[in-house]
Amino acid sequence: MAVEYEFPRPALATDCVVFGFDGSELNVLLVKRGIEPYINVYALPGGFVRIDETVDECARRELYEETGVKDVYMEQLYTFGDINRDPRGRVVSVAYYALVRSTDYFPHGGTDASQAGWFKINELPPLAFDHKTILETAKQRIQNQIRYRPIGFELLDQKFTMTQLQTLYEAVLERKFDRRNFSSKILKTGVLDILDEKVQNVAYRAPRLMSFNRERYLQLTQEGFNFEI
Amino acid sequence: MAVEYEFPRPALATDCVVFGFDGSELNVLLVKRGIEPYINVYALPGGFVRIDETVDECARRELYEETGVKDVYMEQLYTFGDINRDPRGRVVSVAYYALVRSTDYFPHGGTDASQAGWFKINELPPLAFDHKTILETAKQRIQNQIRYRPIGFELLDQKFTMTQLQTLYEAVLERKFDRRNFSSKILKTGVLDILDEKVQNVAYRAPRLMSFNRERYLQLTQEGFNFEI
DNA sequence: ATTCTTTGCGTTTTTGATACGCAAAGTTAG
DNA sequence: CTAACTTTGCGTATCAAAAACGCAAAGAAT
Asked: Tell me, what's the pLDDT at B132?
């Protein structure tokens, strides 16, 4: 397996910031490292790029291998290329972020066996390498993206209430919206289908469910429509 | 100089999309390749990352070595990691974009000796590798950035007229603005100093010159101000 | 002196953002 | 069963910004 090159090369890795939403707060998926360096310290899921896979494929593979998360929304974030970001030597890392329905994967708090778990975005443990920096970059990116593109729906169940959607936006953007203005603004875009279905077993008045209409969204964007909250 | 690794590694390179403005159109700086593959085909300036430099440093160094451009505004764009993007083998490239005052460097059209030259963004020659994709990504990025951050000033002389600034915005965003609304909107932000100086030797009424006040911009952004055109 | 183009400063109109009123739905408490 | 209470759903009023446009002064060209 050993290989020889004419000139030294940095190693190339990927790391992934996985965001989840538990209904009230934004969470991040972290794995506890089992080997040195930073043994027993939490880190972003990630690993080295293989020679026969694209960088995107590497990010998906590592995420699946380390956390079981697959088939999720994923986007490249930024490449971190400082010289001393990894004590093992020169490692350049292409960072990604992913959005998942957190209830699909782990119970909140994580199973200790898997060494992976959800952490509230504002209550993070110490992190290995420069992963704190990566995470802050990812948080800024998702705050930007959610205002201009309908990525928020990746974090919710297919059917959701308007209040759930608003709570998500408030958690990501860390600010409050007026309930009535938020609702009419979102509905005005026309990308939501209002379903003939209401939430069951709920205190007080039951809200109706809605779903994101992806076809309608794509159609509208092609016509020069701009999703902006 | 030869080195051995336990596992094969992709080579890591940088490429840079250099934007310039000639007063009426947006231009891109390209270099003609002198070696195979793609000999005599135009490409973005770039090259391989050395083991003792950061990825950012590599982008600046390669840009200077191949075009003489240095000390300019530069930002990371995206990392291109497909398997077959380079016929020499596995090469992952971190792309950057830079903004320069194009008159500072080459006469428009380029000097043939240097094998580097400016091309209008909408009249590009065939490009090597996946550089067309990189360039399109860069164009989208600059169109986004110029609306929210005052990067346009990097493309103009220190002193400029309001019409020059508007022409730049129209060239980048490929749309027209109303002269009076554009002017008042920019002036209202407060980041421009109006100088006691007018353009000389000009037909018809001479416009006043202005300059970007970076200190004022930084002060305003710290106070939670948002530059948006 | 007159014509002509650009500049500079304004107003009007339209659109969108924000604030908030209120009644109906539907559960909980007495 | 009735009253109280919370959430929902739909509406309007107010305010701020965007877009459209009017007009005269500057100043070179004729």
From this structure: 98
- Which one, of A194, A43, A192, lies nearest residue A119 by Cα? A43
Residue B89 backbone class (left: φ over 0; alpha: ψ -120 to 50; beta: rest): left
∠ CA(B100), CA(B101), CA(B105), 5° rounding? 90
C-beta atoms of A81 and B55 within 8 A:
yes
Which residue is closest to D20 in terms of CA–C1' distance? B178
Interface residues 186-215 of A with strand D (CB < 7 Å): 203-208
Q: What would you report as the CA-atom Rg of chain B, rounded to the nearest whole angstrom?
A: 20
Strands B11-21 and B91-100: parallel
Contact of A123 with A43, CB cutoff 8 Å: no
- Tell me the β-bridge partners of B30: B117
Residues lining strand C at under 7 Å (Cβ) are A 178, 180-181, 185, 198, 202-206, 228; B 161-163, 179-181, 183-184, 203-208
What was the pLDDT predicted at B25?
94
CA distance B69 to B98: 10
- pLDDT at residue A113 in the model: 47
Rounded to 5°, the CA angle B142-B143-B148 comes to 90
**B179-188 LR contacts (CB < 8 Å, sep 24+):** B182/B229, B185/B229, B186/B162, B186/B229
Structure tokens of A162? 């308007």
Residue A104 contacts residue A78 (beta carbons within 8 Å): no
Are the C-beta atoms of residues A51 and B90 closer than 8 Å to each other?
yes
CB of B117 within 8 A of CB of B29? Answer: yes
Q: What is the mean pLDDT of chain B?
A: 94
